[in-house]
Design a protein that fits this description.
This protein has seven helices and 14 strands. By secondary structure, the chain is of the alpha+beta class. A hairpin with a 6-residue loop joins strand 10 and strand 11.
Length: 277
């Protein structure tokens, strides 16, 4: 039996083409319908772009208080990068805006650049097409209006980065595995790798394969989660509230018992001290 009011955590393999908010909206809508509520807390731990797939953690009810803790976990990605081309968004959300030579790049050069410039603590400027706030507004809203967006660099940690596949010299394509800290933009990482190689680059695919201890193999697809919410028995809002109140009463009684025991111990100690005098 699920208890969405008290809180559930769902590990979802987010499909391509959907925003993280759209996934949350579908989960919330299904719960609102089943529980007969106007609203219920649902949130996600760590945004994935629409053109990315993989591990998305969705929390409901009181478990949403754990979001900050959950999204702080180390993340692993598989990123597909095309060299020699850039786009304004650093991925395929926008069209190619410039091309660069790439024939001079070798796999050995790539591995050296990744090892020397993109391992450990690095500075990264987030993309203009991102949710980073500029003057209190999301940067992407300004960027889509054609306005200049200036975002400060942030310190990040890349724990591991390695070449998985390399299409060179035939094709300017590269697949890398990245293990990194919260707040890393893999799109921006692709941009910076292209610059470091004396070329340009953008993402043409991204999959988040792990968040904390949860791997994508442990995740359910969205349709299965929605079906579970539609068919599995749920604890009603009224019952969830009763259970919460009962837990609070038990906790209050236990706290009062501890306080009374501590007071009696203190009184006995004072009495012994007085008698010894």
């Amino acid at each position: 039996m699920l208890n969405p009011i008290e809180g559930e955590i769902f590990y979802i393999d987010k499909p391509l083409g959907m925003t993280s908010f759209a996934v949350v909206k579908q989960v919330r809508g299904r719960l609102r319908s089943r529980l007969g509520l106007k609203n219920i807390h649902v949130g996600h731990a760590g945004t994935l772009d629409p053109l990315a797939s993989g591990v998305l953690i969705v929390c409901t009810g009181r478990k949403t208080k754990q979001i900050e803790q959950l999204q702080a976990g180390v993340k692993e990605y598989t990123a597909w990068i095309r060299l020699g081309e850039t786009t304004p968004s650093f991925d395929m959300e926008t069209e190619v805006d410039a091309t660069y030579p790439w024939q001079h790049i070798t796999r050995e050069q790539i591995e050296q650049v990744l090892r020397e410039q993109f391992t450990g603590s690095i500075q990264q400027v987030p993309p203009a097409f991102s949710a980073c706030k500029v003057g209190g507004k999301p940067a992407y809203k300004l960027a889509r209006k054609g306005r200049e967006v200036e975002i400060q660099a942030k310190t990040l940690v890349i724990d591991e980065i390695e070449v998985v596949e390399c299409g060179l010299p035939a094709e300017p394509t590269l697949t890398v595995r990245v293990v990194c800290s919260k707040g890393t933009y893999i799109r921006a990482l692709a941009r910076d790798i292209g610059i470091a190689l004396g070329s340009g680059a953008h993402l043409y695919g991204l999959r988040r394969t792990q968040v904390g201890s949860k791997r994508v193999e442990d995740c359910s697809n969205l349709e299965d989660v929605l079906t579970q919410l539609e068919t599995e028995e749920l604890v009603s809002a009224e019952q969830a509230q009763k259970e919460l109140l009962e837990r609070e009463r038990i906790a209050n009684r236990e706290r009062a018992a501890r306080q009374n025991a501590a007071r009696r111990m203190k009184e006995n100690k004072n009495k012994q001290n007085t008698e010894s005098e």
